[in-house]
Amino acid sequence: MLGPRFSTVIGLFPDVIPCPPDSDLMRRIGTFSDEPSARQFADYLASESIDATIDSDSADPADDPSAAGPSVWHLWIRHENDVARSKEALTAFRANPESAQFKVDVQQLVSPVAANSSAAKQTADVAAEPASTARKLAPSASQIAADTQFRTDSADDILLADEVRQQRTPVTIAIIVLSVIISFTTNFGSPRGSAKPGELSLEQRVYRELSFVDRDSFDQSGGNPFTSIVDGQVWRWVTPMFLHGDEFHLAFNMLGLFFLGSTLERLQGSFRFLILVLVSQVAGMLLQVSIPPYEWLPATLHGSPFAIGASGAVYGLFGFLWIRPLIDRDYPIHLDPIVVVMMLGFLVACMMSWVPNVANGAHLGGLLGGVVVAVVGYILSPIQAKP
Fold this sequence. Notes:
Layout: E1 14-16, E2 27-32, H1 35-47, E3 52-56, E4 73-77, H2 83-95, H3 112-115, H4 120-127, H5 141-147, H6 154-161, H7 170-185, H8 202-210, H9 215-220, H10 227-230, H11 247-268, H12 270-290, H13 311-327, E5 333-335, H14 337-349, H15 360-380
C-alpha cells in the first residue's frame, strides 16, 4: 500500500509447472512406477466422474527405441475441487490395489468431458476407448527447464486454454473497477470541497466514508485510530484499498492485482481468492494502524490510520504465491526467483528514509497475511499422497 503521490511498478508474472498438453492448470497428486497401475487408478477416477489423466516422463519406445525402460507415470487432476477426494482414494489404492473397489470395467466408462458433451458421436467414440487413455510425453531435461523459466506468455496460454477451468475472474475485475471509479470520484486522495459553505462535497463524503477512520471522529476520540471500527463501521477494514493517491499509484497497484489476482482466482476459485484478498487487506491495515511511533523505529515504519491503496492486498497475493509452492511441491504455479527478489527488494527499499509516503506496515502486514493463508490452506488440505 503506497501513500499518496508516490508509486512504482514491478512486473509480476507467475510461472507454470509443465502439465500435459491441452490442459489447464492441473494438479499432480502422485506418481506410479508402472503403467498398468496408473491406468487402473485413472480408470477408477473416471468411474467416479473425476477428470484425470496420466502421462509418462519417458519417450515412447516406438518413437525412440533408446528410451525403452522404466519410467514414472504422473497422475493429474483437472479440477481443484476433486483433488482432496482423489488423494484419499490414492492412499486407499496404494494400501490395497487389488480391492474390488478399484476393479473397473473400462468399456462402460465415459470420460467426464464426454459425458457433458451434446455430441452423441463424440460420446460414443470416447466410450469405446479406456477412460484413462494417456498422453505420453517425452520432455527432456532441457525442455523441462525451458518450460519452467520465467515467462509472460505461456502462463496465460495455459490459463486460458481449457474451458473446464474457471475462466472468469469476477473478484479481480470488481476490485479493479471499484478502485478506478472510487479513485476518480475522490480526486485521488484530494477530494475537492463543496461550493456551498458548511456542506461536504460528494468527493469528501465518499473519501471520509471509505477511509479507515473518519477524520472528525479521530480528532474527537483523542487520536484513537480504531474509533470508527469500534462504532461498528467494519467495512473500513477493507475500503481503503479502493482509494489511491494518484494515477500512477492506481495503475501500478491494478497491474499487480491483475497479473497475480487473475491467475490465483482462476486456480483457487473466486470464494477462496476473496478470502485471501480480505485476509491480506485486513492484516495489512491492522499492522499499519497498530505500529507505534517508537523512537527506535525508522519514521518510515511509524503507523498511520490514513493509509490508502491496494498494495497491501497485492503483497498478500505475492506472499501466497511465493510460499505455497515452497511447501506444496505439486502446486502448479510459482514465481520466478527474480520476481521474489524484486518484490522483497522493493519492500526493503521503501523503508529507506529517501522513499517518503509509503505505508510500509500495510506492505508487511499484507505479506504476512498472504503467507499465513498459504500455510494454513496447505495444513488444512489432505496429507500429500506419496509416490
